[in-house]
Amino acid sequence: MKKKFKCEVDCANCAQKLEDAIKKIEGVTDAKVNFIMQKLTLEAPDEIFEDIFAEVIRTAKIIEPDTVISEK
Fold this sequence. Notes:
This protein is of the alpha+beta class. The protein has one domain (2-70): Alpha-Beta Plaits. Helix content is 38%, strand content 28%. The protein has two helices and four strands, in the order βαββαβ. It has helices at 12-23, 49-63, and strands spanning 2-8, 30-34, 39-43, 68-70. A four-stranded antiparallel sheet has the order 2-3-1-4. Helix 1 packs across helix 2 (49-63). The chain is globular.
């Protein structure tokens, strides 16, 4: 499954760090954080997508505590 989320991140460097960290999460097929558009595109298997998304939120708060990820 591939889904897009609103991703409020403060700078391009933080967006890149966040993208790199998300890609390392087990089960993530692909991830892209677009700083300009303030979007996260996350790709992961359907059956574990919700668990992976929860881990993405936890990881984002560690990398950049001000980051907010939400459905559109």
